Amino acid sequence: MRQVLALVILLTMSSFVAAEYDEGIEFKLLKKVQPAPTDGTVEVIEFFSYACPHCYRFEPYIEKWQKTKSDNIKLIQVPAVFSANWEALASLYYAAEVLGVEEKMHPIIFESMHGEGQHARSMDDLKVVFEKNGISGEQLDQALSSFTVAAKTRKAKNMTKAYGIESVPNIVVQGKYMTNGTLAESHDNVFKVVDFLAEKITADTKK
Q1: DSSP 3-state assignment of 30?
Q2: Which tens digits make up the pLDDT trace of 84-95?
Q3: 5, pLDDT greater than 70
Q4: Can you tell me the distance from the alpha carbon of 98 to that of 86, in angstroms, rounded to the nearest whole number?
């Protein structure tokens, strides 16, 4: 009887044990480790593009995770650059940031390009989207032509190459580990893997 009871307790406890994920299955190592914070912060980078419908569908999962993530996790979103068109969209992201409207415009840009019945494709289309949301074409053009936006876009392009990003959305944790919906098998699982890696990094830092 005691053996049966012990087995029941063991099985019950095991259901509460945090999931374990394995390198090469749910996540992989970057070919070249990139710089990361050393102050206890865990840096999580999402590489994305407004041109990517998968990134549009991934956005709700990011928004949900941001509400529950640990305080020591810092999320950085980086627009991947694979072509001239994607470079222009990366500049648009940073222009919104410079104008102080990134938080507002980020979901609006995605929705205007991929939402039901929405067909914004060109930069002219997207300028109209900005104008409808209170940012004039002149304001946007000034931001797009600024040194700050050019520098940030160039950095994003260099990061896309340095981190070995070949598709989006892709998540990199602490400049070392990469995961995505394919490796984790679902968008929802991506952030379970991210949290697992963040906990591992935090624990290793305290050793």
Answers
A1: coil
A2: 999 999 999 999
A3: no
A4: 18
Dump the DSSP string for 138-156: HHHHHHHTSHHHHHHHHHH
Which bin fits 203, alpha (ψ -120 to 50), beta or left (φ > 0)? alpha
The H or E element spanning position 177 is: strand 177-179
For residue 35, whether the previous peptide bond is cis, meaning omega lies within 30 degrees of 0, is no
Q: Give the span between the Cα atoms of 91 and 54, in whole angstroms.
A: 20
Q: Could you tell me where the beta strands, DSSP code E, fall in 2-129?
A: 28-29, 42-48, 73-79
Name the residue type at position 176.
Answer: K
pTM above 0.85, yes or no: yes
Instruction: Tell whether the torsion through CA atoms of 85, 90, 96 and 102 is positive or negative.
Output: positive
CA atoms within 13 Å, Cβ hemisphere of 49: 22
pLDDT value at position 2? Answer: 53
State whether the Cα torsion 24-25-30-35 is positive or negative: negative
Domains of the chain, with CATH numbers?
22-206 (3.40.30.10)
3-class DSSP state of 5: helix
Q: What type of residue sits at position 94?
A: Y
- Phi, psi values for residue 166, rounded to 5°: -115, -10
Residue 106 phi/psi, 5-degree rounding, is -55, -55
SS3 7: helix
CB 131 within 8 A of CB 61: no
Contact 42, 71 (CB under 8 A): no
